Amino acid sequence: MSVVEDSRQKILVVDDDPDITGFVEMSLRVEGYDVAVAHDGLAALQMVRSYQPDLMILDVMMPELDGIEVLRRVRADPVTTALPVIVLTAKGQTPDKVIGLQAGADDYVVKPFDTLELVVRVQNTLRRNRESREVSPLSGLPGNHRILREIADRLRTGKPFAVCYCDIDGFKAVNDAYGFARGDEFIVTLGRKLLEAVATRSSAFLGHVGGDDFVVICDPEDIRPLTEQAVTEFEKAADALYDPEDRERGYITVKSRRDGVKDVGLVTVSIGVALSTRRPYTDPRQIIADATEMKSVAKSQPGSYVAVDRRSGE
Asked: Which domain-ending residue is among 107, 133, 159?
């Protein structure tokens, strides 16, 4: 199974000159894109909502509602704020380029333009947008979509691999006692230590699911050395993130309405591991589910623990 979307990417072309929109539409359709056209700013704003393009090519100079105002409204709307936009500017109109970029344009093309240049800029803008959506803003690591794609790619090769699902034990208590900003420091630290362990193994991959959850994909023989290095280094680094008095006594005191006052030990790491050889996986989500199940087993054990799924295949 591939997790990469098969549908054609949609591009909205906005220009009051029908010759230009016709030329751009034809050029992009040849490249395999689905293309829609609008000839004024108001129609463009309506189509951004109804057509839901993956990218908009927007002329700056249009009567009534110009491209800059269209761009500002697109960026001001939470639903469309992340839409990639390439603005078209007349040759020599440097202020238009600057104003467009300041208003939130991702790139610009100068008219008259070369077809190849336009296509390359469209491809690059879409690629950058896709990559940015696949990256966790907190850790800078690949996110869920990229993790699933990595697993799908490895399933296709047939080469054995392991999926390690990691999270921090006692993380909620850290957030409750110190606040989310301090909690983020623990998340970033785990991500950094996992990355250091992954970096020494050429075939290993690290992704950030969200919160304190990470996924490592590696060769089965790397499970033990990789996880031991990451956990050991994380526990050392995490100690320094506590207030001195909490670190010295080995626990933090947390108050809640439901549980009252509770003492919670310093953070540890639970890791659940699923092996691609355990059964004939066809969907990346199946092996993620098994790794998640093993993480629950790891959490039932004291301290940092790695639980590997050794059950026979189904």
From this structure: 133
pTM for the predicted model, two decimal places: 0.68
CB contact at 8 A, 306 and 178? no
* Backbone torsions φ then ψ of 37, nearest 5 degrees: -130, 140
Domain of 232? 144-308
- Element holding 133 (H helix, E strand): helix 115-133
Q: Are 107 and 124 in contact (CB under 8 A)?
A: yes
Read off the amino acid at residue 84.
P
How many CB atoms neighbour CB 56 within 10 A?
Answer: 28
pLDDT in tens, 146-178: 899 999 999 999 999 999 999 999 999 999 999
User: What is the residue-wise DSSP string for 276-299?
Assistant: TTSS---SHHHHHHHHHHHHHHHH
Coil, strand, or helix at residue 62?
A: coil
- CA 41/CA 48 separation, integer angstroms: 11
Q: Does the residue 106 lie in any domain?
A: yes
**DSSP of 267-278, one letter per residue?**
PEEEEEEEETTS
CA-to-CA dists, residue 42 to 49, 61, 63, 99, angstroms: 11, 14, 11, 20
- Of 136, 130, 154, give the one whose Cα is nearest residue 194: 136
Same domain, 155 and 293: yes
Q: Is 313 a domain residue?
A: no
Cis upstream peptide for 112 (omega within 30°) = yes
Query: Which residues, at least 6 apart from 240, have a Cβ–Cβ distance to it below 8 Å?
Result: 247
- Give the total number of structural domains in the chain: 2
